[in-house]
Amino acid sequence: MPRPPRPDAAPVTAHLDHESEVAFPSAPGPHPQSPAAEPQTIRSQPDRSQPDQSQPDQSQADESQADESRTAESGAGPAGLRRAYGAGTLEADQLAPTWVEQFARWFAEAAGDHAGLGLPEANAAVFATASAAGRPSARTVLLKGFDHRGLVIYTNYTSRKGRESAENPFGSLVFPWHALQRQVVAIGALERVSRAETERYFASRPRGSQLGAWASHQSEIIESREVLDSRTAQLAERWPPGTPVPTPPFWGGVRLVPETVEFWQGRADRLHDRLRYRRSAGDEDLWVVERLSP
Ligand SMILES: Cc1cc2nc3c(=O)[nH]c(=O)nc-3n(C[C@H](O)[C@H](O)[C@H](O)COP(=O)(O)O)c2cc1C
What we know:
It is a single chain. This protein has helices at 99-111, 160-167, 195-204, 207-215, 225-238, and strands spanning 14-15, 124-130, 136-147, 150-156, 170-177, 182-192, 251-265, 273-279, 287-291. By secondary structure, the protein is α+β, with helices and mostly antiparallel strands. Mean pLDDT is 83; it is low at 1-11, 18-36 and 46-69. Residues 24, 121, 124, 137, 139-142, 153-156, 159-161, 218-219 line the site of flavin mononucleotide.
């Protein structure tokens, strides 16, 4: 049986300061420049020149016999794309005492902190939320920090994910590190990070991303690209270079406070290793590790 990790292990803290060139921003309420946009209707026509790729290709070899790293023939469609995993194994006695130390290890490997050969956007994760009615939604976000308290992302609080995080404060973050044949799945409660923490992070962002956060009414329908560009140009005049851009009140961090964190390592024949840290029901500082069937 896996040993229970030490609950009193020293906390690991990491802040991911690098900022991508892409701005992922925000803004409140209706904007004077963006009258309710008329919906555009675009009908899609099936492309009859292409073969139907929605059906599995029965001619492909059985998955369990795939000893090639890739068995797809070009044009075989998604069912023909197949990789055999075997890059590593994961045993309970290899795990760090706490989920956060184990995450720090795997994250460093994904980001290339040791070898200097990181995966592109190793901090990208799929963030799933759900409405109060239980309707799920998911999107990619960038992890910007983690420590023993949880995993932090930044977003617009009025976006779909922002609203759902508030009305139904539970979510999941999935890190798909395909090149390492690994994934990490964290599930837990969602909370806003403190204003001071958000402001510290916002101040570290490039000016373009700061203006973008003000310019975008994230998740709302927008009339045109021009509306967004002209709004951004106005904001750039309001806060010229050299003038600090304040943190938008509708923008900030969301922390996922894990109840479970699963570490998944791909193995041959789809018999993967899955080890999950679960917060003990009796003692919230105690984590138990369980192996899950692949
Ligand atoms: C690689 C990548 C990273 C992203 N990072 C963020 C992010 O950190 N925060 C964010 O709000 N949106 C980010 N986005 C955009 C979201 O995926 C999404 O389009 C946006 O947040 C609106 O989502 P929502 O309408 O479901 O709330 C990212 C997208 C990609 C592809």
